[in-house]
């Protein structure tokens, strides 16, 4: 009886089809917008459920979206690596929980909420910049929201957004996995910086940046590298696992200390431990820790890079202003934001590797260095790179 009523009122949502078929909302969206990206059996199952429930995509709205959206291109250039072209493709209807929301996002100036933990770290502004570029191409807007560190407050704020925004980009680790999965059934959602099963996720792939950083250290005759952990997060584990795996394959001894606070003060704390162990090369969880290490070592008479080379992660604003400026593994946060918006709009990620990075990635795969998330249909990987500055040098004489 409930199914008959939904057919009569034509109010069956993508979320209803996803629940009945036992798949993610994004999978249902792909079935109707880009079925070649979905397993054949899944396509047949979803279409059968949609037919039974009476769900029908709105062809008029799809035509309106196609007419409004024209292909564009922009070029991103990394000053310390080869240029890479990131084409922006205009494809298919939007990813959303119902056809009405699809139309709002692309043609009626829809609003996307970018939810972050901290707006003062320089990271959120980079994500916002990239997200705005792609959203504006579809007449949409991105708003930045900072609920702070509290998980309860973050969840309350997210619940408050239901019905008020057309999509959410979640760039904070405060909500738990169960909450995120349930929330994704109610609001079009993309998660940044950690993969969540059955929910569209955009995460950095550290492999290219890490292999270039370690290769540089090995060229300078370093034989051991110490990693300074800054948290117990997925991002920290991803970075350390990648460093450990690639470093061992290069014949480097990989050590680990921490975690310390992911701040300049945490770097001060780490520097004391490093002075006792006297490593020649250090890679840190983020640039803030690296900056704290450089400042404290310099104050204690330890020279960077003559006595110890230091590499950070993230390439945030602090890296180039420390003396000496800090070499950093660059996470292109703007591209994370762009990829997240494209997912909400039902588009391909559009990323194209430059030839040098593509060749390097092929070599890593031949060596068995893989990312466990690269086979997941719900995860979009964004490559890292290396920004070389003056904090890395020749290994000191024994």
UniProtKB/TrEMBL annotation:
Keywords carried by this UniProt record: DNA-binding, Repressor, Transcription, Transcription regulation
One term of GO molecular function: transcription cis-regulatory region binding
CDD domains on file: HTH_LacI, PBP1_LacI_sugar_binding-like
Region (Disordered): 53-102
Pfam families, per database record: LacI, Peripla_BP_3
Naturally occurring in which organism (per UniProt): Bifidobacterium cebidarum
Gene3D superfamilies to which the protein is assigned, alphabetical: 3.40.50.2300, lambda repressor-like DNA-binding domains
Classification via InterPro entries: HTH_LacI (IPR000843), LacI/GalR-like_sensor (IPR046335), Lambda_DNA-bd_dom_sf (IPR010982), Peripla_BP_I (IPR028082)
Source superkingdom: Bacteria
Protein name per Swiss-Prot or TrEMBL: Periplasmic binding protein-like domain-containing protein
Domain HTH lacI-type residues, every copy: 12-66
Biased composition (Polar residues): 83-95
């Amino acid at each position: 009886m409930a199914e008959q009523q939904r057919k009569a009122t034509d109010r069956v949502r993508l979320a209803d089809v996803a629940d009945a078929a036992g798949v993610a909302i994004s999978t249902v969206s792909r079935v109707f917008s880009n079925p070649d990206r979905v397993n054949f059996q899944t396509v047949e199952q979803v279409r059968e459920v949609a037919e039974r429930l009476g769900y029908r995509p709105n062809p008029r709205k799809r035509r309106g979206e196609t007419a409004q959206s024209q292909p564009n291109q922009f070029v991103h250039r990394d000053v310390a690596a080869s240029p890479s072209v990131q084409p922006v493709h205009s494809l298919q209807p939007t990813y959303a929980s119902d056809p009405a929301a699809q139309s709002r996002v692309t043609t009626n100036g829809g609003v996307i909420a970018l939810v972050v933990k901290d707006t003062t770290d320089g990271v959120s502004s980079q994500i916002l910049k990239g997200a705005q570029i792609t959203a504006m191409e579809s007449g949409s807007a991105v708003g930045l929201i900072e609920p702070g560190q509290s998980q309860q407050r973050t969840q309350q704020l997210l619940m408050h957004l239901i019905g008020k925004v057309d999509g959410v980009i979640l760039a904070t680790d405060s909500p738990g996995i169960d909450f995120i999965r349930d929330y994704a059934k109610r609001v079009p959602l993309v998660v940044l910086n950690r993969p969540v099963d059955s929910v569209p996720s955009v995460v950095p792939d550290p492999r290219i940046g890490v292999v270039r950083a370690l290769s540089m250290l090995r060229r300078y005759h370093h034989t051991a590298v110490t990693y300074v952990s800054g948290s117990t997060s997925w991002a920290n584990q991803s970075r350390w696992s990648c460093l450990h795996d690639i470093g061992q394959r290069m014949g480097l001894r990989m050590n680990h200390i921490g975690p310390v606070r992911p701040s300049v003060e945490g770097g001060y704390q780490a520097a004391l431990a490093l002075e006792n162990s006297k490593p020649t090369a250090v890679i840190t969880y983020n640039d803030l820790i690296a900056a704290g290490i450089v400042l404290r070592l310099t104050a204690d008479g330890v020279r960077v890079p003559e006595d110890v080379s230091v590499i950070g992660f993230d390439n945030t604003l602090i890296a180039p202003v420390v003396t000496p400026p800090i070499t950093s593994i660059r996470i292109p946060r703007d591209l994370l934001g762009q990829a997240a918006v494209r997912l909400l709009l039902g588009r391909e990620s559009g990323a194209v590797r430059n030839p040098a990075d593509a060749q390097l990635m092929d070599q890593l795969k031949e060596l068995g260095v893989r990312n466990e998330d690269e086979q997941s249909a719900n995860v979009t990987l964004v490559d890292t790179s290396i920004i070389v500055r003056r904090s890395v040098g020749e290994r000191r004489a024994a």
